[in-house]
# Entry
Amino acid sequence: NFLKYFLLLFHHYCYCIYNYLATSFIHSCPSSCRCSPQGAAICIGSTITDIPPLPVHTYLLQLSGTNMNVINEQSLANLDLLLRFGLIKSHLHTVHPRAFLVAPQLKSVKLSSNDLSTLPSRVFSPLATLEQLHLDGNQFENIHPDMFEGLGGLQDLDLSRNKLRSLDSDIFEGLSNLTFLNLGRNFIKKLPPTIFHSLTKLQQLILYYNELEFLEADIFDKLINLVELKLHHNQIASLPPKVFWPLGNLKTLTLSSNQLQTVPEKSFYNMPKLIKLTIYKNPLLSLPDELMGHMPDMTEFYLYATNLITVPGNLFANMSGLLMLNFHLNDNLRDLPPDVFCCLPNLQKLSLKSNNLHYLHPQLFSKLTNLKKLHLNDNKLYGLPENIFKGLGEILEILLTNNNLSSLPGDIFVSLPALMNLTLSGNPWGCNCAIRGIARWIRHNEHVLWDRDDVMCHNPVYQLLRTVGSLRDEEFSFCSATRAKSFPLQDLSWSPTQPLHSLSTSGQTSGLTSITTPPTTATQSKQAAFQTTQGATQKVTDKITTQTVKHLFMSKLFKLKVPNTGNKYNTHQPNNSYLTLQPHISVKASSNSRCML
Ligand SMILES: *[C@@H]1O[C@H](CO)[C@@H](O)[C@H](O)[C@H]1NC(C)=O
Ligand SMILES: *[C@@H]1O[C@H](CO)[C@@H](O)[C@H](O)[C@H]1NC(C)=O
Ligand SMILES: *[C@@H]1O[C@H](CO)[C@@H](O)[C@H](O)[C@H]1NC(C)=O
Ligand SMILES: *[C@@H]1O[C@H](CO)[C@@H](O)[C@H](O)[C@H]1NC(C)=O
Ligand SMILES: *[C@@H]1O[C@H](CO)[C@@H](O)[C@H](O)[C@H]1NC(C)=O
# Structure
């Protein structure tokens, strides 16, 4: 009995295998396709002009880069198990009105990147269980209002990258299960007010790269489940007040690259789940005092390429979870309210680079106790308050390159235990008494100053080739302590009372050294200065940086001769890098330069 049972089972098993082999032999994978054992077939190539015979259990078919320009009445016949059909990048231009009648089981149809400009009315309507329809990358200029009729189960509709200019107000009616709608990269100028009102399950709405000029006040009213709304790269010049208020579940809202000059007050209230909001690249002139509602989950915010001159003091106050704030590249941004960074206890990176900042309030950064990176480079800062960085106990990096700083308070960077990267080059450092303190700090913290070789004296003229870090304390010995301390920031004028003979460094082999001899009397030194100027030739054997050369040319006080090297300036060979300086200076004595460095 057991043997009989076993043989029967064995026979049945063999029969099954035979059957399977036979059917797959009849419809084996065509040569232009790759077929997976599970039933996915991917077919690529211009030799394909119609759907090839496929293994019967094929449930997914994707044709790409083919010459199949038409889907006709029988193209999809005999593929009863097919659920997902794609024909992409194939110059498809015609779909037969009954093309999908033979395959009502389809759940996904992708006809992306073809030449379709029109479709027969209700061509997809036999697909009662269709969930995904991609018509992106075609030539549609408009879409017939009944195109999606009967597709109540549709979840994902992509109409992007077409030439759509307008849409009928009822076109999405009945698509109550739609969760994703992409209308991006078309030429849509205007949307009917009720166009999205059936889409109560919609989660993602993509409208970017269109020509929208305004939004109807109640256009988003029914989109209570929307999570992502992308409106960037349009021409939107104004927003109706409260247009986003129904969107209480929104996590992403992009409004960048539009034409907004202002935003109505409280526009971003009632969006407690927001994690991304973009309003950069708008010609914003001002922002209202109340704009951002409670949005504790927002971790990054970008505000750049605007015309803002200043911002309301509480602009970021409700973004309590911010880790990174890039508030930069605003050409006109000149003033920051003292408390604008009041409420960002977690902020780690603050970029304020390339704005038009001249001055910063002493308390501006005082609450940013967790800040690690602060970028202030490429502004017009002409000075900094002594205590501006106080409290930034975690700060690792401060960039101050390319400002208008001639001096800094000597202890501005003390008590920043974590500081390991500071940049100060590209500033017109005035190497006079006022710089004594910071020069000392630099000497003791060389490793922190990333660009120390380019932090050059900009004046007085005789100090031009020196780095601030090379100034030695003895050189300031005649500056009175009080004088040095109280030296105001604006003292940029170089002191001409310096005896220039002290600069003659010919014969020195290392280090640009100037020996500063305190002047005996003002008159004497003035004379000496003038005389030496006439014939002074100076060999500089210090390391010459491009910054140095830039300084020299910019100051227009010297003719630069570089012997033996032609025009090429070699910064690495000390023997090639000496300069002959012929100063063309008209020395002007200033009788009130009391600190005679
Ligand atoms: C919409 O989705 C729900 C739940 O997923 C489903 O029960 C319903 O049948 C769908 N509606 C249509 C018209 O397919
Ligand atoms: C912060 O958000 C709350 C709640 O949304 C709101 O009442 C308050 O006015 C907002 N503050 C600012 C400065 O906008
Ligand atoms: C310091 O900052 C400069 C300027 O941004 C950067 O190039 C450099 O990599 C930084 N160095 C360190 C050690 O972080
Ligand atoms: C730099 O600051 C000085 C005053 O300290 C000012 O006269 C000058 O115009 C400023 N330069 C720029 C480019 O802002
Ligand atoms: C520079 O010149 C000195 C003296 O002329 C010579 O001893 C030295 O080797 C030269 N250095 C280089 C890098 O050419």
Remarks:
- The helical segments are 2-26, 436-444, 481-486, 522-535, 546-555.
- Residues 31-127 form a domain with the Leucine-rich repeat, LRR (right-handed beta-alpha superhelix) fold (CATH 3.80.10.10).
- The two ends are 117 Å apart (CA to CA).
- The first helix runs from residue 2 to 26.
